[in-house]
What we know:
Layout: E1 2-5, E2 11-18, E3 21-25, H1 32-41, E4 47-51, E5 63-65, E6 95-98, E7 103-108, E8 114-121, E9 124-128, H2 135-144, E10 150-156, E11 162-167, E12 179-182, H3 185-188, E13 193-198
Parallel strand pairs: 3-5, 9-11
Antiparallel strand pairs: 1-2, 2-3, 2-6, 4-6, 7-8, 8-9, 8-13, 10-13, 11-12
InterPro entries: SRCR, SRCR-like_dom_sf
Pfam family, one: SRCR
Domain SRCR: 1-99, 104-199
Amino acid sequence: LRLAGGRSRCEGRVELEHQGTWGTVCDDEWDIADGDVVCRQLQCGHAVSVRGNSAFGRGHGPILRDELGCSGNERHLWECPAAPEHDCSHKEDAGVVCSEHQEWRLSGGRDGCAGRLEVFFHGIWSTVCDSSWYHLESAVLCRSLGCGEPLQKLSFGHTLPGKMVYECGSLQPSLALCHWKFNKSGPCQQTWAVGVICNGTGS
């Protein structure tokens, strides 16, 4: 099981592997209970929202499940009852956004590659504390946003409801693969919110 076409491994089009071939799930009867099973199986928390109509792009290969009827307690998606045949096309591929999905943006700068760093997690936008934020963390962020390399770190006040802390031990493809903590007061007391200017240009 995997999620494809999203902005993290915890968001995207639902894909299953069967006999060495990856296929998709049809959005007929697709609901939060089905999404919960997917998110839990992938260790991505629970489903925040479910999407149909190939919201994360059209998949390829066979359509392996249709009219799923999960109770939400199953450990694996293939334990859920489903229709024996499907009447779908890939324009009906199902997707899900899980609670552990994180996405990032730089706001208030001249474009999407400069400004205050904000992270979307557990359904809200939050700021990031500068207590463990160094050049390495900036490099991970700039590259993951397609914004090149970091030029400068900025400081802002915290004005959003949550606070996130990141600590990267190496140059990861995403901040979600670094060590992170959400709304833990210790590392965030009397800190500033991180801002970054990358050398690329964004939308």
